[in-house]
Design brief:
Strand content: 15-25%
Distance between the termini: 88 Å
Largest sheet: 4 strands, mixed
Number of strands: 6
Order of helices and strands: HHEEHHEEHEE
Number of helices: 5
């Protein structure tokens, strides 16, 4: 009777620590199958189960690097994204949309059709989208005409401001690269 009692105590001790006689690493097994759920933290991450908290199925003490009761902690920067991927910014398409919106705002089909009535629109030679919030407009003039730069920023704001809610900054350069205006809209 004494051997059975001692054996029962040993088995109870192993069960309380989560160990089997051949397993030095405490593991919480799947309660329905009795099997370990994950072979590695990478498997737990791939299954979307990480991080594993003490008491969770699959938790292993050896995977808890800082012994805080959380194993397979996932660095937010390295974690696989479960959300849909944000589409890449298409600068060429965005620039074309801005050009079309500017011309539609003036009721025109080309920048040269704005001459001589709308000088700031007439002299645009290029529109560059740095991202969805910053555009650089190049004017065909070579002088440092700050008034033309301000008119261009105001025109952009008035003609397309509400159509492009992310657009917040316009830089206007002349043909030689001199900044004529650099303002928020």
């Amino acid at each position: 009777m004494k051997k059975i009692f001692v054996g029962a105590l040993a088995v109870t001790g192993l069960l309380l620590t989560g160990c089997s006689s051949g397993d030095a690493d405490p593991v919480r097994a799947d309660s329905t199958t009795g099997a370990n759920l994950y072979d590695s933290c990478a498997d737990a991450v791939a299954a979307g189960a990480a991080p594993l908290r003490e008491g969770d199925p699959g938790y292993r003490l050896s995977w808890d690097r800082d012994n805080d009761g959380v194993a397979c902690e996932v660095d937010a920067a390295a974690a696989p994204s479960t959300s849909s991927k944000t589409p890449e910014f298409d600068a060429v398409e965005y620039q074309a949309q801005i050009e079309r919106a500017l011309l539609a705002g003036a009721g025109l089909d080309s920048f040269t059709a704005a001459c001589p009535d709308i000088s700031w629109l007439c002299t645009i030679s290029d529109i560059e989208a740095r991202n969805s919030s910053i555009i650089v407009i190049t004017q065909q003039v070579t002088e440092a005409d700050e008034e033309l730069g301000r008119k261009t920023v105001i025109g952009v704001k008035n003609f397309i401001g509400e159509q492009f809610p992310d657009l917040g900054w316009v830089q206007v350069n002349n043909a030689t690269g001199t900044v004529l205006a650099n303002e928020s809209i």
